[in-house]
Amino acid sequence: MKFSIMREFVRLAAIRNYSKTAEELYMAQSALSRHMASLEDELNVKLIDRTRNSFELTPMGEIALEGFQKLLEDYENLLGKLSRQAEIDGGELHLGCLYYDMDFYVAKIRDIFHRKYPKVRLVLHSYQPMQLETDLLNGKIDAALIYNASGCCREDIEYLPFLKIPYSLFYCKNHRLESMKEIQISDLDGERILYPESVFEINHTADHLMRMLEEGGARISEKIMINNYDEVPWIMGETDAIYISPMVNNNAYGNNVEHRFLLPERYHSDVSAVWLSENKNTTVNLLCSAIKMCYP
Fold first, then answer.
1. Cα 137 from Cα 275, distance rounded (Å)
2. 250, 251, 260: which is closest to 182 by C-alpha?
């Protein structure tokens, strides 16, 4: 059983509302609902009475809540002891991130980490999105900063969501959308869209986008597959396609590309620190502590 899902259950029991809990945890409501269902399946008991207008824990849910709170408290105490020893002993942490985010939230986390844990060597590795996942899952890096990891159900990873980012719409100058004052999802009906060619195992941005477009009434006329994200401006220029991304560096694609936030604003992505459950490097705990200082 994953401690991250225990935490989600404890917060849900306190807030008693799925959408508000999901918003606080920087995750999609559908992912939270899926995690609670999987928790009930694993324990083989019903934990939550769900109706349209009410939220109640079952008697089994109350027992689980008390047990999870105790387990999480003991676990946090253990992590604190390990972190203090790791800080004394020093060590090395290899952290992967997307290369175009290096000057944004990555820089803030790096600065806090170096000031708080000067004896620990933090080594940053910058990537294209697919290689970031590959090296994390192959154990070449200790942790990674990944978009939309909170929708991942892999049992071998843990994650800490910490930042919420609105989706941005990218298009070349002179595109028909340029004249619009505000752009709703429904305005994208009939457009071509750039879409990742590779299937991600942790990053579920592509799934979120397709669900968002469907709910917003935008039928995409064609998906144009991309693999190297540096090609986005060129492919947009050649195909007149649009691109939707949660990236924080909206100027990454140069002067010939326009970008706007996409409405309605209820759609967003999250950024999470992700690591393999089997990773024994205790400096990952220090990374989580530094992130919580940056984004409490």
1. 8
2. 260
Can you read off the two tokens belonging to residue 212? Answer: 């968002």
HSE (side-chain half, CA atoms, 13 Å) at 217: 5
- Whether residue 29 contacts residue 18, with contact meaning beta carbons closer than 8 Å, is answered with yes
Tens-place pLDDT, residues 2-48: 888 888 999 999 998 888 888 888 777 888 888 899 899 999 999 99
Structure tokens at 254: 């140069």
DSSP 231-259: GHHHHHHHH--BEEE--S-TTTT-TTEEE
76 token code pair = 């946090």
CA distance 111 to 293: 11
Report the distance separating Cα 69 and Cα 102, nearest Å. Answer: 36
Share of the chain residues as helix, strand and coil, in percent rounded to the nearest 5: 45, 25, 30
**Residues 229, 126 contacting (CB under 8 angstroms):** no
Rounded to the nearest angstrom, the gap between the alpha carbon of residue 115 and the centroid of all alpha carbons in its chain is 25
The reported pTM is 0.79
Residues present in the chain in total: 296
The model's pLDDT over 112-142, given as tens digits with 9 standing for 90+, comes to 999 888 889 999 999 988 999 999 999 999 9
